[in-house]
Amino acid sequence: MTDAAKLLKTKMAAAVIATIANPDVPAKSDAAAPIIDAAFKAVGAEIINATNAEPFYQSRVTIGAIMTLMGGSYSLVLDFMDGVPPGVDDLTGQLTAIIGAAVVLYGRWVATKPFGQ
């Protein structure tokens, strides 16, 4: 279980236990564990995925961006290594791939809020 999953399950457990402690809720304290397990099993994976809390190596976004970054960088290096500077059209495509991949990785790993918020 990942750290994010453990944290989510802990927060779910606290909420369920607090709810069961309410005298107006018709549930016994020994029902907490099965309720927590069922709730986590039902929605845990979706919540972890929706919050982008999975490890980077399980993220298709990260893997795709790294592949794009590597491809653009490799192409750019090859263009300079043959002794002839790349043309504007080649350079534009390569730099767009590199910058775009860098922005995606920043957004996936660092940014905490969407644009405009």
Describe the fold and architecture:
The chain has 117 residues and is mainly alpha-helical. It is built from 4 helices and no strands. The protein has helices at residues 3-21, 32-50, 60-81, 88-109.
Summarize the structure.
The chain is an all-alpha fold.
Mean pLDDT: 87
Number of helices: 4
Tally of strands = 0
Share of helical residues = over 70%
What amount of the residues lies in strands? under 5%
How far the N terminus sits from the C terminus, by CA atoms, comes to 32 Å
How many structural units, i.e. domains?
Answer: 2
Low-confidence stretches: none
- Overall spatial form: rod-shaped
Tell me the radius of gyration.
Answer: 23 Å
Largest sheet: none
Q: Give the oligomeric state.
A: single chain
SSE topology string = HHHH
Structural class computed from helices and strand pairing: mainly alpha
